[in-house]
Inverse folding.
């Protein structure tokens, strides 16, 4: 979906009120296609690279923005307990029904920028994919502060987010100016996205995320746009990045 929008908390109500969820999130196969890989193989590669090595059977895991549970299914199979936090009550209701038989899955209604206080110091691993890409930096930074509180010392978070060119972020206001939006897409993504849009990505760069994480008290472990043998799989369709963060033990 690319509706020419600038993502905000209010804008993200779309995923609960209007989006049709034709395959409960698995319809988002564009990144796999862009990397030249079958969708199911690409999806499994993310699980193998980022989830399976990080989640112990007894781990308490958090997912931000589960939508209809595309990744929640994978997380529930690995975790001892799973907390799902979503802005949209429609998505929370869907996940409650989908995971009704899973006592270890707890669904929370969020406000789009913070985490439930009850999760403070309780989370071993946090995950968010295809959610933070639709945030602006102030919202993402608020979530980073929440993660710094929710993660146990030594706990890690893996976030998928925009990776626009840092030096052009100051021109983000062009997204509000009709035809100039496509100019900004080209400047900040480094390629002509005419006809394809920018995936409604927030005005965020990899550098901005690293700086925000540091301000929140988190350590940046890694930041990548490809993974697997020889970088076979990637999330580069809209110049996205995946960043691994850690709450320092001391």
């Amino acid at each position: 979906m690319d509706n020419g929008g600038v993502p905000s908390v209010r804008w993200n109500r779309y995923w609960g009120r209007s989006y049709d969820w034709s395959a409960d999130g698995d319809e988002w196969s564009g990144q796999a296609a862009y990397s030249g890989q079958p969708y199911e193989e690409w999806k499994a590669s993310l699980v193998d690279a980022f989830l399976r090595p990080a989640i112990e059977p007894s781990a308490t895991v958090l997912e931000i923005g589960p939508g209809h549970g595309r990744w929640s299914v994978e997380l529930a199979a690995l975790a001892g307990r799973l907390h799902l936090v979503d802005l949209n009550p429609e998505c929370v209701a869907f996940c409650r029904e989908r995971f009704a038989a899973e006592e270890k899955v707890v669904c929370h209604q969020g406000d789009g920028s913070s985490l439930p206080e009850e999760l403070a110091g309780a989370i071993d691993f946090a995950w968010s994919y295809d959610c933070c890409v639709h945030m602006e930096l102030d919202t993402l930074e608020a979530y980073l502060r929440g993660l710094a509180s929710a993660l146990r010392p030594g706990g890690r978070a893996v976030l998928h987010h925009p990776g626009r060119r840092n030096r052009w972020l100051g021109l983000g206001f062009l997204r509000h100016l009709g035809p100039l939006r496509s100019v900004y897409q080209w400047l900040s993504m480094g390629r002509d996205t005419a006809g394809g849009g920018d995936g409604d990505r927030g005005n965020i760069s990899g550098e901005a995320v690293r700086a925000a994480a540091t301000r929140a008290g988190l350590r940046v472990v890694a930041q990548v746009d490809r993974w697997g043998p020889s970088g076979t799989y990637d999330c580069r369709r809209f110049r996205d990045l995946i960043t691994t963060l850690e709450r320092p033990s001391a």
